[in-house]
Task: inverse folding
């Protein structure tokens, strides 16, 4: 009999368990970065990027399929201090003469305060290894007729913008991206109670009292359409940055119930990873590859009674106050991407030591991996060395 409500593992290698938008099942979400000490939540729009070109943190072409993410929060700048905060506004451009070349629509975004804000956001709200996992995006926006202009359906199309994204890590959606049903923006008049937020799209010059004023598109999500007039660049609306995540930097993804930090003493046990109901709004925590931990290695494992002893070298060392979240961790996989068991198996009091672990019942396809991990609380990103497979003793 087919299972009516199939369950999924609460931890899986890479981003295999993270789902793109589905019309019936909604969005998945993930945590990345932080603001005012709280993790930032992102909506997964696509598992195939935003139809652009990409480069990784080393400037090499990325040919994989990135996760295309959109901030779930409305963000902006607290102008007395310049801090980035939730539920504040952003000016697309406060400078009355920004030096735009209005015959080259991409220059409107490229010279804007909105683009500068996106760069500041990435620096302020993403850690170094998180930024290293964000791809540089290269894209031209094509001419676009709005599907659901809320007020002026007879307005001309948005002009094409050649090379508008030119190595941007964080950016605003285009008007077209903000209306794509496959990203979860339904083609209907009213679908959410969110407020207005900027896109990167320049719509042209609008005649007003004998003069021509440049206009930029914003999303009027409260009423389900693009607000095209008036939307002067020196108005202020919310920002919802988007980015493309390098999936090769994600070691594994987990739900909250799958990862519990412990302080093992003596022989540790790995806990089974639960299977949970597939539901709307599942939120994933990422464990990212930290290249500064690449020197982590294992020695020859051996049995001592019922415990497997695993020597390790070049681990990030634990310190009660300086590095309280450092662990030696392990996981067991089966034949697919699902993780069957996970746990912290040692406190690395020094870079070299030994971990002791009692293994669960073993299956033919099972594989044991050990790694140096910074295991952080809540929705904060975890960081780990490459996973080293334990050779059979």
Result:
């Amino acid at each position: 009999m087919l299972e009516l409500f199939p369950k999924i593992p609460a931890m899986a290698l890479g981003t295999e368990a993270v789902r793109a938008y589905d019309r019936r099942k909604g969005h998945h979400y993930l945590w990345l970065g932080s603001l005012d000490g709280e993790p930032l939540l992102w909506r997964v729009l696509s598992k195939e990027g935003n139809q652009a070109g990409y480069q990784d943190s080393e400037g090499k072409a990325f040919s994989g399929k990135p996760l295309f993410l959109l901030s779930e929060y409305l963000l902006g700048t607290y102008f007395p201090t310049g801090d980035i905060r939730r539920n504040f506004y952003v000016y697309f451009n406060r400078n009355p003469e920004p030096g735009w070349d209005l015959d080259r629509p991409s220059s409107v975004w490229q010279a804007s305060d909105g683009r500068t804000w996106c760069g500041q956001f990435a620096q302020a709200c993403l850690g170094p290894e998180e930024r290293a996992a964000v791809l540089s995006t290269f894209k031209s926006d094509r001419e676009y007729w709005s599907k659901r202009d809320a007020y002026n359906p007879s307005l001309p199309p948005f002009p094409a913008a050649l090379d508008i994204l030119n190595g941007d890590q964080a950016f605003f959606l285009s008007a077209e991206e903000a209306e794509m049903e496959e990203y979860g923006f339904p083609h209907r008049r009213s679908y959410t109670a969110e407020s207005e937020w900027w896109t990167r799209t320049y719509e042209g010059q609008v005649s007003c009292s004998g003069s021509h004023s440049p206009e930029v598109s914003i999303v009027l999500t409260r009423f389900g359409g693009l607000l095209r007039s008036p939307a002067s660049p020196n108005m202020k609306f919310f920002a919802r940055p988007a980015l493309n995540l390098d999936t090769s930097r994600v070691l594994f993804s987990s739900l909250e119930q799958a990862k519990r930090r412990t302080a093992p003493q003596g022989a540790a046990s790995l806990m089974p990873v639960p299977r949970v109901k597939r539901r709307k709004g599942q939120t994933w925590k990422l464990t990212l590859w930290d290249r500064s931990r690449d020197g982590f290695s294992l020695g020859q494992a051996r049995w001592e009674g019922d415990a497997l002893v695993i020597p390790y070298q070049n681990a990030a060392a634990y310190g009660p106050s300086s590095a309280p979240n450092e662990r030696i961790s392990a996981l067991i996989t089966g034949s697919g991407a699902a993780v069957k068991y996970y746990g912290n198996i040692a406190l690395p009091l020094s870079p070299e030591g030994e971990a002791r672990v009692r293994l669960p019942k073993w299956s033919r396809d099972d594989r044991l991996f050990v790694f140096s991990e910074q295991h952080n609380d809540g929705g904060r990103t975890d960081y780990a060395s490459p996973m080293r497979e334990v050779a059979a003793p």
User: Anything to note?
Assistant: The radius of gyration is 24 Å. Residues 109 and 336 are 43 Å apart (CA to CA). The mean pLDDT is 88. The longest helix spans residues 113-125.
